[in-house]
Amino acid sequence: MAADPIRFFNRYTQALETEQVFGEKWLRFAYGNPLGRAGVWLLARRKLFSAYYGWKMNKRRSQLRVLPFITEYDMDVEEFAKSAFDYRSFNEFFYRALKPECRPIAAGEGVAVLPADGRHLAFPDVDAADGFYVKGAKFALAELLGDADLASEFAGGAMLISRLCPVDYHRFHFPVSGQPAAARLINGWLYSVSPIALRRRIRYLVENKRMLTLIETAAFGRVAMLEVGATNVGSIRQTYVEERTVTKGEEKGLFAFGGSCVITLFQRNRITFAPDLVEQSAACTETYAHMGDVLGTVY
Predict the structure, then answer these.
(1) How do residues 151-179 score in pLDDT, each as one tens digit?
(2) Residues of the domain holding 127
(3) CA end-to-end span of the chain
(4) Is 281 considered catalytic here?
(5) Potential cystine with 6: which of 19, 85, 166, 271 (Cβ 3.0-4.6 Å)?
(6) Catalytic residue among 117, 168, 192, 290
(7) Options 260, 281, 290, 293, the catalytic residue
(8) Is 117 a catalytic residue?
(9) What's the number of domains the chain is made of?
(10) Angle, CA 225 vertex, CA 180 and CA 229 arms, to 5°
(11) Would you call 177 a catalytic residue per the annotation?
């Protein structure tokens, strides 16, 4: 199964599509070959490896990678907040802002929105799910949150996994309005979060470095957001002001270079996810959709 192409459902075309995977040959060797897995264990999962790559992507000469990347992945430059020629490094291009009108925020006090562009899996009852990326492959909330008491608050709750590819818009936003606490670091490794890796070992999501933020809301109760680091993710940067009321769709932070992941948790009986997300996720198929689009409605 790990050698199969990565297929996802596109909410906008209403069709299954095949993902063009950045660094696919390397990923398949690293996570599908015993020698490659040894290299991941010895080097690629470690902070120094990703820090070095992030340093390279911040160098001025990395700017030369921008236009070829845009061309290879057929990116829509009309969405960019500034010209593709104005980025001073590849990393600056990578965590680029978009024109606000390109990501409208779904209206309604009882509507939650997707926190990021990407490919999403939605599970209305995380405890009852058969598996996440493959059947039978799960992790415990206590492992994800690093806190057994907090995990008990979200037992039987709903979970959204939003996977960002290197080609995606890499800023993440609040899915609901409310008051966020300070983000808390849960230290860990930096394995890949590509399905190529996660199909072999879903536990990478609970072994990787991540940041946890709790959001107190009027409509949805307490909501937890986790930004998960991964191989070659230079950093997770929080740009919001803690303890200040935010509105849904407001920017929370950004990822520097690399594929990454945002996990959003709701307490039991607080949200009804959009039907297309639930239907596709039941078959372990991700749904591609944009930040600000409908995630679900208040239960």
Answers:
(1) 999 999 999 999 999 899 999 999 999 99
(2) 103-298
(3) 36
(4) no
(5) 19
(6) 117
(7) 260
(8) yes
(9) 1
(10) 125
(11) no
